[in-house]
Write a structure and sequence with these properties.
Length: 182
């Protein structure tokens, strides 16, 4: 059995994960970005939701992510692609990432903060490459163009639709639960 540590974060409405694996002799670092299908603009989906290549004789499926993913920057290049979900009509989430061993610098000094900075830099490049990436509303969980809402100081996004829903729910709650007057 092998041990791994996982740190989760979100930057500019894109979830990411930093992973440190212990091989017993050294640590191996990875980071992954998670892009729900609904967050990817319609015109970009065929470049992220990839069709598999024919299975190998052992039944393993590979995706042509090296040639398809648009100008994304990862430490040592993108070395991981997987589709999560997609069964029984559930939406797909694309997980893409990198393995620091592929850059032959596994003996370098890395921390969760250093690898997290690299992940956030990859997200910034993703936004430069796909500027119309959609943003998840913190109120209703749906995805919207960034222009259809506002970001709070902590980076959370509330769509105009989500704000209206929130205001309506607050008003209903206040009406049903009036404050006692003294």
């Amino acid at each position: 059995m092998k041990h791994k540590d996982v740190w989760n974060g979100e930057h500019r409405s894109v979830r990411y994960e930093v992973v440190r694996w212990s091989t017993g002799e050294s640590d191996v670092w990875n980071y992954y970005l998670f892009l729900p299908e609904k967050q990817i603009p319609e015109g970009w989906r065929d470049r992220f939701i990839l069709k598999p290549q024919p299975p190998t004789k052992w039944g393993r499926v590979f995706y042509p992510y090296g040639e398809k993913l648009p100008g994304l920057e990862f430490h040592g290049g993108c070395t991981f692609y997987e589709k999560l979900g997609g069964l029984d009509g559930n939406p797909i989430t694309v997980q893409i990432g990198c393995d620091y061993n592929h850059a032959w610098d596994q003996d370098g000094y890395f921390t969760d903060e250093i690898v997290g900075q690299d992940a956030r830099r990859s997200i910034d490049v993703l936004w430069e490459t796909v500027p119309d990436l959609l943003v998840r509303c913190s109120y209703n969980g749906r995805f919207f163009p960034a222009s259809d809402g506002e970001f709070a100081e902590d980076g959370t996004f509330t769509s105009h639709e989500g704000k209206k829903e929130s205001d309506r729910h607050r008003a209903e709650y206040a009406k049903e639960n009036p404050c006692p007057t003294g």
